[in-house]
Amino acid sequence: MKKLFLVPFLIYSVSAFTMECDPQVEVSDDIENLLTGVKEKKRDWFAASEEKVLKAPCRKTYPDLATQEAYLKRVAEGSPTKQTTVGGVQLEDSPIMIALYRDMVGYDDFNEPPEESQNLAAKYSIGPDCKKVQCALGKIFGDKRAKEMLYMKQKFGINISPFTKDSRQSFNESELGHIKKAIMDFPPHLLPLDENRSCTRLHKDYTLGLGVLANATITFANDWNNYGPGLMEATVLHEMAHNFGSDKKIDESKDWLAASGWTQKGEEWVATKDNFVSDYAASNPHEDFAETTVAYRYDPEKLKRLSPEKYKILKDKVFGGVEYTNAQMCQDSNLSVFKGINKIKPGLASFNVSSIDPEMKKKLMSYCARDSLEAFIDRGYKPYEECIQGAIALELAKKQLIKDNPSMSPETIEANLFNKLNGKSAVEAFGINFPAAKKKEIADYSQKMMDEYELDAFPKMSTYLEYKNKEDYCKDWASEYSYQRLSSLEKNINNDLLLYKNGSKIAERFHDKCIRVQKSFPKFREFTNKDYSKLLR
Questions:
Q1: Would you state the pLDDT for residue 23?
Q2: Fewest Cβ atoms nearer than 10 Å: which of 88, 118, 193, 357?
Q3: Residue 371 burial by CB count (10 A; 0-12/13-18/19+): exposed, middle or buried?
Q4: Quick check: 250 and 313 in contact, CB under 8 A?
């Protein structure tokens, strides 16, 4: 039985969300029992074999470096240049590039950065002549890797910097190549991942646990690259799938639990049906979801045979009708979506923002939440206006889809469209280009939406003391304590994130606004409702 230790028995994470509860199999009897159970149930070790992964249809090529450079240039030119210092590094770049830099080196306004990312200016000789983000990151990681990191973070929401956490090291070129391939195996509407999702490799002296190659925080162990390229890529796809399962709340949804009869008893999950694509999928609903996603992408016929119900859930609620059963199915969205988008294009010139009702307005802010955060701080942030264009196009396309396909489920319609635009313009998301006059109209409307947000925020910034001068009043009025009530607003900007990561920036901006308006008064007085409109922009 000693030879059994050579069998790769658990390659993925045991937990969804961000927990790291690694599986522990410590003695040979446990391993023998586990293998016996697999043999009796005739399950595979992996959701898809090496051959199935490598020969799967619809595997797309990752964009080349020239394409990445052109994309980053558009991002950098999105808004006026700002100056700041991050960890001793002097930067002069667009706000979005500076935000990417801060994410890459582990700095935010709340937490102490990891030890590895401190004093980078001195460690890598980043002088005042290197003020662009690409230059600074190039000094640290090399020019090519810096561009790849920035592109992957902005385009796909995946941060591969080793400086985001302690005890991490950079991926080598081969490992990064497998990550790229796995990313391209998802349809584009599933990306980017929400917020700043770290994807890292443990330092060689650390481990995740016996037999564990990765966990749901997208952290890879050192044994990960001991397997074939197909299984490495399946591991990446599995861990990314955990994020879709939790973000969309599918892996504990009523339909998903019913597909295998999952019930929870204490801290344990028990299933009444044996329809799993691998033994690891039988661990709990979260691993079931991630493993089933791997099978859907790389071995769909196997999944159809074992569980048609799960196949349909993934098809409708995750992949948006996109299937991978043969090479003819390699469109990223089904034909009805393209027909719907093409139908709305002729009417774009006559679109009027006055047709936007309250429900649609709420959707626009929700789709563009990340860019709305940036616009709240910097009202000249152009990607926000471009994202609103994309969100309007999305809503128009959705209405056309509903009209043309009354039997299509709401979940399928949502999954087919870019329901997480995260900065995509209408051109990037749908190939839609509004006429210049409409772009101006939408830009004005997007700024009015932000005006409404700010006007709702100002009265909630209460003060409780009697003030005798303008400076003290403005200092307290704009303090983090006084405007934490922003969290009570319901405008679909993530207020918790807004305060968590950008508190000091917002305080400075509001303080300057307050002083500007106070100087217009003959003498100090507290603001009234009539004064708040003077604070805009």
A1: 35
A2: 357
A3: buried
A4: yes
Structure-block tokens of residue 131: 């003020």
The tens digit of pLDDT for each residue in 146-165 reads: 999 999 998 898 999 998 87
pLDDT for res 357:
93
Count helices and strands in the chain by DSSP H and E runs? 22, 10
Going by C-alpha positions, the residue among 62, 131, 55 that lies closest to residue 90 is 131
Alpha carbon 174 to its chain centroid, in Å, reads: 24
Position 492 scores a pLDDT of: 67
Of 120, 106, 211, 240, the residue nearest 166 (C-alpha): 106
Please report where in the chains the tokens 């700010």 appear, as a residue.
454
C-alpha span between 371 and 383 (Å, rounded): 7
8 Å CB contact between 56 and 297: yes
Largest CA distance in the chain: 89
pLDDT of residue 515: 92
Residue 184 lies in a domain: no
378 shares its domain with 302: no
Q: Is 30 in the same domain as 120? A: no
Residue 429 sits in the same domain as residue 518: no
Rounded Cα gap, residues 333 and 335, in angstroms: 7
The residue out of 450, 477, 504 marking a domain boundary is 450
- Determine how β-strand 158-159 pairs with β-strand 197-198: parallel
Structural domain includes residue 213: no
- The average pLDDT across 297-308 equals 96
Query: 18-74 pLDDT, tens per residue?
Result: 333 333 333 334 444 444 444 445 678 889 999 999 999 999 999 999 999 999 998
One domain for residues 39 and 81 = no
The first and second tokens of residue 421, run together, are 């635009």
Considering the domain architecture, whether residues 370 and 473 belong to the same structural domain is answered as: no
List the domain range (segments joined by +) for residue 82.
Answer: 65-175
356 close to 446: Cβ distance less than 8 angstroms: no
Q: 161, 131, 124: which is closest to 146 by C-alpha?
A: 161
Q: 3-state SS string over 247-276?
A: HCCCCCCHHHHHHHCCEEECCEEECCCCCC
464 and 492 belong to one structural domain:
yes
Name the domain count of the chain.
4
CB 369 within 8 A of CB 493: yes
Torsional class of 216: left (φ above 0), alpha (ψ -120 to 50), beta (otherwise): alpha
For 170-191, write each residue's pLDDT tens digit.
999 999 999 999 999 998 778 8
The answer to whether the CB of 426 falls within 8 A of the CB of 390 is: yes
Tell me whether residue 151 is in a domain: yes
Is 246 a residue whose pLDDT tops 80?
yes
Same domain, 437 and 354: yes
* H or E element at residue 201: strand 200-202
Does pLDDT of 112 surpass 60? yes
Mean pLDDT, all residues of the chain: 81
Label residue 197 by pLDDT band (50, 70, 90). Answer: confident
Q: Is residue 206 a part of any domain in this protein?
A: no
Do 291 and 369 fall into the same domain? no
Tell me which of 209-223, 363-377, 514-528 is least confident.
Answer: 209-223
Report residue 216: phi and psi, to 5°: -70, -10
